[in-house]
Design goal:
6-stranded mixed beta sheet; binds NADP nicotinamide-adenine-dinucleotide phosphate; 21% strand; globular
């Protein structure tokens, strides 16, 4: 008798564009694992509790969770990992024999490509543009792993950002300073600059095409690491300008693969064959 295929999926809204099915199905194929990863578009947040109860009943092996449900799912899970609890946001769920356990692999996925620069980041100022879920994962990673002197949070709505910091306790536990994004001169002194907004995304709406980070040779320089969480296109306008100014650049593709690698291990207990999966992913993005 052949073993049944286990189901994994992505919970989100209008997420047909996601590369997660490609990443996880390729990894399973390469390792000969009987899993199938699909997309579950949920339009109405009221359906989240039913979806998670149904997942238990149907024995779905696990999920990724993305915009706008990373926080919505939290009250309906049976347990949270330390990382997920710390930012009250879940991007990976494991169904452990009927118990749904929430994890957050965005933190480790974000940190991975910065780890080689860890010593040079300690005690320096870093900056993050945006104050959504991805920015919170970056604050947590910086605070937990890189010990920066200060984290500048560049935002267009300081009140909203302050509320977010209070909600997650970072107003007390992390050295975060909120700065208006129309006053970016301070990025000159930053060792790391992170774009955690959708600005620069291919085919994004007009709002996401505006650039709040100045693509300016006077502000960008060789002493900086510029990390754009946007992964499509691979080389965003920000990364192009940063490269031209001699800065070290990191594409969002690294975080995408990093968070997927950690989620894959949580579900399957196996190591993702990262180089082969990354090559397939890059081919797919370049063909678009
Ligand atoms: P989110 O929760 O919706 O937050 C987006 C943030 O960007 C908000 O603070 C928003 O400001 C700000 N923003 C949006 N458009 C802006 C504009 N035109 N000017 C200034 N600020 C703007 O989204 P998220 O989950 O944090 O994700 C942010 C980005 O990171 C997305 O592009 C996502 O695809 C990417 N991401 C990548 C990975 C990866 O693996 N590479 C993982 C997670 C996220 P307001 O609050 O004022 O609206």
């Amino acid at each position: 008798m052949t073993k049944a295929t286990k189901i994994l999926g992505l919970i989100g809204r209008a997420v047909d564009y996601s590369y997660s099915p490609l990443i996880h199905n390729a990894a399973c194929r390469l390792l000969g694992l009987r899993y199938h990863y699909t997309v579950f578009n949920i339009a109405d947040p009221c359906m989240i509790p039913d979806a998670l109860r149904g997942a238990k009943a149907l024995g779905i092996a696990g999920f990724n969770v993305t915009i706008p449900y990373k926080k919505t799912v939290v009250p309906y899970l049976d347990e949270l990992s330390m990382e997920a609890a710390s930012i009250q946001a879940v991007n990976t769920i494991v169904n452990d024999r009927g118990k749904l356990i929430g994890h957050n692999t965005d933190i480790a996925g974000f940190a991975a490509p910065l780890l080689p620069y860890r010593e040079s980041i300690q005690g320096k100022t870093v900056s993050i543009f945006g104050a959504g879920g991805a920015a919170v994962a970056a604050i947590e990673a910086f605070n937990r792993l890189f010990a920066p002197k200060e984290i500048l949070l560049f935002v267009r709505d300081p009140e909203k950002a302050l509320a977010l910091l209070k909600e997650s306790g970072y107003d007390k536990t992390a050295p975060v300073t909120i700065v208006r994004s129309d006053d970016p001169a301070k990025i000159m002194e930053c060792r790391v600059i992170v774009n955690a907004t959708p600005i620069g995304t291919r085919g994004g709406n007009s709002d996401s095409q505006k650039c709040i980070i100045p693509l300016d040779r006077e502000l960008l320089h060789t002493g900086q690491i510029v990390y754009d969480m946007v992964y499509n296109p691979l080389e965003t306008p920000l990364l192009q300008a940063s490269k031209n100014a001699g800065a070290t650049t990191i594409s969002g593709i690294e975080m995408l693969i990093g968070q997927a690698e950690h989620a894959f291990t949580l579900w399957t207990g196996m190591q993702m064959p990262v180089p082969a999966v990354k090559e397939l992913l890059l081919q797919e993005i370049q063909q678009q």
